Amino acid sequence: MGSAMARDLNGYLNVFKPPGITSHDVIRRLRRLTGLRRIGHAGTLDPAAVGVLPVALGRATRTLASRAWDAKLYLAGVRLGAATDTDDADGAVVATGTFDAVDEPSIQRGLTQFVGDIRQRPPAYSAVHTGGGRAYMRARRGQATDLPARMVRVDAIALVAWARPVLTLLVQCRSGTYVRSIARDLGSAVGCPAHLDGLVRLRVGPFRVEDALGLETLALAAELEAWDSVLWPADVAAWELPAIIAPESRALDLGHGRPWRACDALDNPRGQVDARVYDAEGALLGFARRSRDGLWHPLRGINPSGGDSDDKADPDA
What we know:
Elements: H1 4-7, E1 11-17, H2 23-34, E2 39-41, E3 50-57, E4 71-80, E5 82-84, E6 93-96, H3 104-111, E7 116-120, E8 129-130, E9 133-134, H4 135-140, E10 150-163, E11 166-174, H5 179-190, E12 194-204, E13 207-208, H6 215-224, E14 243-245, H7 248-255, E15 260-261, E16 273-278, E17 284-290, E18 295-299
Parallel strand pairs: 3-12, 14-16
Antiparallel strand pairs: 1-3, 2-3, 4-11, 4-12, 5-6, 7-10, 8-9, 10-11, 12-13, 15-18, 16-17, 17-18
């Protein structure tokens, strides 16, 4: 279904991931629709979860490691009374308990421990690397996996509704945070087993769920060859960076990975500066870093160690 036009695509899609499929299933479908191999996503959503999934096409995959995709907002349902082996509704029940003594004040008190930089143990069924593979693969084989706690960042958390035995939370956090773990640990905090009952990702960086497009809409865009109407520019992941305009000679240097002498307003001898680089027509050429040596050094992407991956498997809620 992909066309020659589609194979030249570079930019981002704000995709609404439906329930029942994995984030990589979305990538596979988009590869068929676009004819592209070079596609990746910014942050994994569990199969049961729905919501915003930023997808990079072509050269935009170089920006998947941008901090723009680090901030996320979720609407989460937490069910009290049972814990599961996956920490969500898809798992087998491993413990039960009563929620009779749980009230809104105790929930509010419990939530205070999940704000800020916190230590969090990822779920056993997660994409975390352990023992040479993913944790969920070991868990499926029945191998006990005691994942160590690690630091994650939760910017804010709020109780939206409490209708026993389900409470609804609004969680603003950073990449690597598992909302399933928050649900599990909140149960411990209020003295009742709990698990994540449902999850909607409302926002990732600049992408909002109100603007996200379903796979059916994207299939129609492919059929009509109307990708320009749904594609965000690659620099959506780097709008916080300063921009420089490069003359034609500098554009060639950038394309060939050659540094050039800094002689512009972004000169900063006290430290390095990352910037977007455009040609005179306003087309994004790439990214460069002004280092202490007084030179602009071309970067492969926002994070030069990130590379051009086909799929981004960052563990997320």
